[in-house]
Give the backbone structure.
Amino acid sequence: MSNASYTAAGVDTTAGDLAVELMKSAVGRTHGPNVQGGVGGFAGLYDVSFLTHYRRPLLATSTDGVGTKVAIAQAIDKHDTIGQDLVGMVVDDIVVVGARPLFMTDYIACGKVVPERIATIVGGIAAACLATGTALVGGETAEHPGLLGRDDYDVAGAATGVVEADRVLGAERVRDGDVVIAMASSGLHSNGYSLVRSILRQAKIDFVDRSDDFGGQVGESLLTPTRLYTTPLLGILDDPSLHGAVHALSHVTGGGIAANLARVLPLGAWVEIDRSTWSPLPVFRVLSDMASSTLESAEGTWNLGVGMFAVVAPEAAASVIDRLDNDGIASWVAGTVSTTARDVTGFEQGAKGVDGGAVRLVGRYAD
């Protein structure tokens, strides 16, 4: 089949080549000496000979997408933040086990390759990879005419990291009396956008509308990029003075606040997270008011201002909070782990196939 007939079918390989050229410099900035072969190969190559210095290296891998948040980017034609959302969803899952991210690949499926748009998306991915110390070693852009609309696209990615076997974080490290530290989110991150879109649709509000409640254009406010936690957390994990202080981390994504924390607690452990320790960001209050619902009813969908939890030894809590605050991440003590036997009826108990501990939120949110 000739290239001309493929173009007639709706696939423009020339546009794809131009997109690669436009993104090459941004991608190249994420490459250190471990990346071999540059951009454009059939597979990305990464030199892992340094793993011989590990006693027992474990590879960690994660894959995810951005979900229906891309619909808002498409609606207002703003594509420079979606890449950070993708990296946040993927790479911040890797640091949860204590691993350092090494490299990442991305995949963009679209109805029509618009080179400048693809390059903008990948530029955002590359910038976030650079911020988290992750090499962007490859990717793929696929044109799907007839399956996706001309301006439609979706993004996904996968990353790989490494952690020393005896430094893996998780439920087995958690102890009675450990302190649960909450880390502030930047907004909705990349979860619960189907609910957001439903609320706005029922309120007859368009993404291009301007609203004082949202502080400007609705869509742009909702595209606030996902906060990246990897680099600050790795700094804490690598600090000799805090060695072993962090016992578990929980990334608050799909499933909400309590369920995600329960996944990293051991069976028999429980935590009551005190709502009064923080005030949910205005975007959550505005959306809840529009839906005539309560913030509490959204705790299983939105992060409500908490993007990550750390479960730490009590004597290290103040130091961990100071480090996070110095890195620009507001953090606070939200609860304490207990293994004392009690009735946990009404608690969230594990999630996504994990038989973990029990968590519930108590009290009222701060104003």
Q: What stands out?
A: The chain has eleven helices and 15 strands.
